[in-house]
Amino acid sequence: MATRLLVIDDDTTLLEFLQDYLTKEGFEVQVADRGPKGLRLFYQTRPDLVVLDVMMPGMDGWEVCARLRELADVPIILLTAKASEADKLRGFRLGVDDYVTKPFSLAELAARVRAVLARSAAREESEGLLHAGELTIDQRRREAQLAGRVLDLTPTEYRLLAALAERAGETVSQEELNRLVWGPNRSEAGSALRRYVWLVRRKIEQDPSRPRRLLTVRGFGYRLEAI
Question: Which residues contact 53 (CB under 8 A, 6 or more apart)?
Fold first, then answer.
């Protein structure tokens, strides 16, 4: 099966060139000329990688990127006419995998796509299984099971549970969990972390109001018990 790409850019001429070139390079390519359309195509096709333009009318690339990151850990390459360090840092804070400045050659973009996909595959192969009692975290498939039952987790819920499972039985501070779940350069309010803890408890506890697995250590953080 061909690797699926989604390209989102308001330049329809560029989209045509990219779709034609990347298809000839062996990829299956879907294109969208607006952010909302790109998000709809993402839901429908679940691509292996997204190429995303920053400067688009209405919903710009920054907002699309943030929404994609709430949905999945799909690799993202940002396209932009700006080359400033601040913009690049902003992209990396949102969790993008590479940053290509316009103008660029089609061959260069294809090479960047292959490089990002290769890094993503290598990262997945290097990851293994985590166990915490009846909980199993498959880091290669980004999947969690409880007593053999696959849990329906969002990407953020998965990252939180995996971060706790890596140190099962130990208390992890709120600050460290924020860093592990949302990245070192993104600051989340404590209420966001508490909300996701509650959402995870609803999926792994018999009684979320009286948790036995995911425990609060008052004034410090949270601990995942291996039961």
Answer: 8, 9, 10, 11, 61, 78, 79, 80
